[in-house]
Amino acid sequence: MIGGLIWMLFAAAAVASSLLVALSKNILHCAFGLLAALVSVCAMYIFLGADFLAMTQVVVYVGGILVLILFGVMMTHRLHAHGLRDELVQPVAAAVAAAVVFGLSFMVIRSQIWPTVELQEAVPTTREFGKAFLSSHLFPFEFASLLLLVAMMGAALLSREKKED
Amino acid sequence: MLAISLQHYLVLAAAMLALGLFIVLSRRNAIVILMGVELILNAAALNFVAFSRYVANDMSGQLVTVFIIVIAAAEAAVALAIVLSVFRNFQTVHVNQVDRLRR
Amino acid sequence: MDPIIQSALIILFLPLASYVLTFFFGEKLPRRGDFIGVTALGVCLFLSLRIFAHFWGINDPSHQIEANWNWFTIGTFKVDVGVLVDGMTAVMLVVVTLVSFLVHVFSVGYMAGDRRYARYFAFLGWFTFAMLGIVLSNSVFFLYIFWELVGVASYLLIGFFFHKHSAADANKKAFLTNRVGDFGFWIGILLFFTAIGSFNYNEMFDGVATGQITGTTLSWAGILLFFGCIGKSAQVPLHVWLPDAMEGPTPVSALIHAATMVAAGVYMTARLFPLFDANALLFIAYVGGVTAIFAATIAIVQTDIKKGLAYSTISQLGYMVMAVGVGGVMAGMFHLTTHAMFKACLFLGSGSVIHAMHHHQEMSDYGGLRHKMPITFLTFLMATIAISGVPPFAGFWSKDAVLAAALAFGMEHPAHYWPFIMALLAASITAFYMFRIVILTFMGKPKNQELYDHCHENGFAIVMPLVVLGTLAGVAGGNDWLGLSWFERFVADPGAQQAGHVQVIGSMPSESFAFVAGASAASDDPHAVEERASDDQNLDPAHADGGALSHEDPRAHGEAVENAGGEPHDIHHIAHVRAMWLSIFAAGLGILLSFMTYHWRKISSRGALAALPGVHRVLSNKYYFDEFNRDVVVRATLGFAKLNALFDQYIIDGVVNGAGYATVALSWVAGMIDRYFVDGLVNATGELLRAVGGVFSGLQTGRMQSYFLGLVSGLVLLILVYRVVWLA
Known about the structure:
The structure holds 3 protein chains of 3 kinds. By secondary structure, chain A is mainly α. Chain A folds into 2 domains: 84 residues, NADH-ubiquinone/plastoquinone oxidoreductase chain 6, subunit NuoJ (Four Helix Bundle (Hemerythrin (Met), subunit A)); 41 residues. Chain A is built from 6 helices and no strands. Chain A is globular, with a radius of gyration of 20 Å. By secondary structure, chain B is an all-alpha fold. Chain B has 3 helices and no strands. Chain B is elongated, with a radius of gyration of 17 Å. Chain C is mostly helical. Helices cover 68% and strands 4% of the residues of chain C. Chain C contains 24 helices and 3 strands. Chain C has a 3-stranded antiparallel β-sheet. Chains A and B meet through helix 1, helix 2, helix 3, helix 4 and helix 5 of A and helix 1, helix 2 and helix 3 of B.
């Protein structure tokens, strides 16, 4: 019961922070909202017993991606006449679309009889991940590293200063 | 109600998805749109993990989630590089001002 | 071909040849070609005299020779050309060729040195040809054609000195005035043609006799025919051209405007006599009478010698016309003949004077010329005595015949004594003014000493014709008292009108031989000739008996005639005697008054002038005829023409222009329709497509977020549709 309440708390935090991202006029507020959302999702992961995933989420998503986003914000706002200000365009249409999508999804979720199973005890998953990465999910693992390499190269190329040619 | 079921997680994920969609559709700043995309990705990842725990009862969903995170990282890097490029060429990060493909 | 016809054709065409040769080659020939005309006319005269002798021998006025050729036929419309020769023709041939010949000779002297000498003779030839055509024609069609041709000759010759404005105006006036008359003439001809179907004289006479045209139509047709005579023979009111025609050279005045052309009207009236019914003839008689006295009064106040003679001519023409109108065809033609002689003599005499006086024509420059120009004086005097009607000169006999006929007419129709009265008065006035001219010109003291000193009698060319004509003026009348009258051999008065169809006021005076219009003369064979002779023709040349004219011979035949004997016979005899005495008295009175006024100065002409200034003014202005024509007639015509022009300009052109404007307006409307409606449709379609395209191209915002929104919406839609369809 307490667990449920705390879950609700984190869920609300996730939604609230997402709302902050959506509606804030200040880009940095949006960034920190994202931060809160990501941390909330991490909490969700923990509730779901995915401990390795939760850590990965914090380290990669928050520590990497979010920081990168912040870098982006910092680099692009300076010449912006409005500074850190951002406004909404076509809010109504977007809201309607989002609402419709949520509504549809909600209807689908509620109308389904999900084949849930008995909840097991949560176990540490790190060892399983390691085993999986090197056996059954070797190919995606390697391919993912290749992807990261390519992405890194591409990003570096794209963001190069065009001085020659 | 307080017994957290799969549906709770799914609804939460749907909500985040909707909000992320909202952000993508309605924000001017490209970086913020990127944040929205991240939110959508997170929602999807959460879905996978929830299903992994409540239905599949193994790690399959979590493994997918790892890769989602990896891809999200790569994509964020590339996206930001693009944003920087656009910023250099158009002197703006407002996506509604990047409309050279207008009629 | 009958030798007479042959001669007639030679006589006709020789002057034409003279015209052609002289016109084209005259200037290059020696003497500038005048001998061509003189020779040609000499030959014509010779041949005419031969024909004259022939008819003298035949001594039958009803004898005619006709030759007819078909010119063309269109369906039932047939036009023939032919020649008719009878006693009247024979006399006219001599008159025309004689006077023309003498005028040719006279012109050699008179026109010597003129710049267009050859052309002058050419025109004389042309005129003679046309005049002979009138005389010889056997159909009104060709009569009309030659009628117009003499009009052309008159135009050319009056306007011979065309550089003078007065001459140029005069020839136009002559031609136009003639045209007015000819207009009526032609309508009259057409009326006859419509009723009878032929232009030939004899066929027309038959047509009238058999009643193909009657009543009012006949009267009007006759009067309209006579209009031609009014124009050509200068009767009132179309006389106005003749005094102005004196602008032409004097020999021309003698030939054309005295002796021959103006007489053509009389000839025509006499020739076509059977076509006139009693009403038409009455009209003719009064027109003639009025003209006679009218012109005579104007002649009194003329100071130009030629103008005086011109009015005298008009007056004498009135005499002749009147004579024919009262039925005295013989008298009218006889007077025509004698008038030709003495009037030509008078004109040529005046030409001689003018030539000697360096072309001064006003009698105020003359006086006492008998001493310097004796031959001219003598011949002029003889002609004057003749015209005044003093026996035994020619004019007396013819005037006597005219007056007798008029008096007889008056006696038979007591309401119509006027022609006689007018004629008698005119006779007296004629004598008066003619002697006035003689006295002012030849007698008394010279009024212009310088001219008088330089003048002299003219040469042979001028004097010879004067002598010939003067002599003829004396003897050409024959002498009835001595049994030497000759004219009835050639021309006779018509018998009583053919019974019935003509409304006769009274019986026409019947004279010697009945004028027979017998069977049709025309045949369609070329060169067909018929000799018309009365049945019991007496070819005795000695038939011309002495004694009064009115003896009857019961030679009536054909359908004619209610003959002679008894009462009509007596009237004519009585009338003749009375008229004779009256005319002698009138002539004597006139001569006496003339001498008293102008020579012995017993009566003062100045005094008369002072006493009657108004009268003098009216006479000097010729009764204001020219002014009337100019102000009323011409202005009315011009006004009418202007009305027509306005009609044409505003109404007809208005219609045309209106049609144009309407078309333009219509096309403007069409243009508007095209521009706004049709183009509007087309443009609207284009606009519609553009708008639609615009709307759709609005989808291409270039903004990623719009596309994405679309994507999401589409996806949602698909899901919804899928759900609905699947669930349904």
